[in-house]
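[stage:ingest] chain + small molecule (pyridoxal-5'-phosphate)
[stage:ingest] validated
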Amino acid sequence: MRFEELPTPCYVVDEKLLENNLKILNGVMERTGAKIVLAQKAFSMFKLYPLLAKYLNGTTASGLYEARLGYEEMGKENHVFSPAYRDDEMDEIVLICDHIIFNSFSQLEKFKDKVLKAGKKVGLRINPECSTQDGHAIYDPCSPGSRLGVTVDQFRPELLEGVSGLHFHTLCQQNADDLETTLHAVEENFGQWLPQMEWINFGGGHHITREDYDIPLLEKCIKRMQDTYGLEVYLEPGEAVALNAGYLVTTVLDTIKNGIDIAILDTSATCHMPDVLEMPYRPPLFESGEPGEKPYTYRLGGPTCLAGDIIGDYSFDQPLKPCDRLIFGDMAIYTMVKNTTFNGMPLPTIAIKKKDGDCEIIRQFGYEDFKMRLS
Ligand SMILES: *Cc1c(COP(=O)(O)O)cnc(C)c1O
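[stage:predict] done
[stage:export] tokens:
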């Protein structure tokens, strides 16, 4: 099927762009010996896991279901972190995961023996209390009062027996300079316990596949932890794996005026690209400009009842009209994994753009997908 023939709304992941990202990540792995696993919460399009498996060491999960998906569909190293595990899921988790990372010493004490008995690795998430991002408190695990990771004043070294690694995750869309800053805080607070560990996990939030990312500095950070403490280094990016590797194709349904020109699309910010509202950010849109840059400016919105279901203001060379197709960029990550059927909105079709340009529909959704979750 040609790209132009795909039904809308449709998430399209571009295999070639995805593989370009994977090659960049694999380069870091090859040059440093670090291990990189996919954080599935950003991108769980498991149809493409065989491609990812060629380049990455495995998967990480935010809980049992993602862990099971990684186990079933990737089948490589499988890690999991959760702020708190349930008693009734631990048997399955120790069966399918290789690294089980705990958020507190109480959880560690509760489950450690079970993990070790299963022959799996126990990790502990630490909070280096080093905020390197400003503005996005909801994305900052180091913000005051954060529930994510053990702070140094709660650290109980007498309970470290059996713990083979420390994990931190404090970054979000950041460059290697912030990683370097964070590592200094990790060493300052927790450095005395690093020599007794086997591994350290740098978490995600490393925007490694972004053009301006400082890969040599990342590699320097990795090597320093390897050389200073004899640690195996793990990274678990989500965004960087599929950054800019997908589109959301949508159709204009109507245009209206209310002081400004408005276009209603068959895709919704709140249902299909919720980070546009949560983050918030302005998604790239092909063949458009900033408001006023091109002759025709429109506010693009979704068909839900939410007044704030607005994707943003964009300008075009020609007036928009019903049936025009628009293509948003960078729509592979934090989209499919977060979408909803609020207002009874249909879920977008999922497709792959293959290397030869041909497009294949992987899955389509209908009324039953909306209904079945409601009773
Ligand atoms: C979100 C998250 C990741 C991935 O973060 P990205 O920003 O998508 O790279 C990795 N590890 C943990 C613990 C996370 O919560």
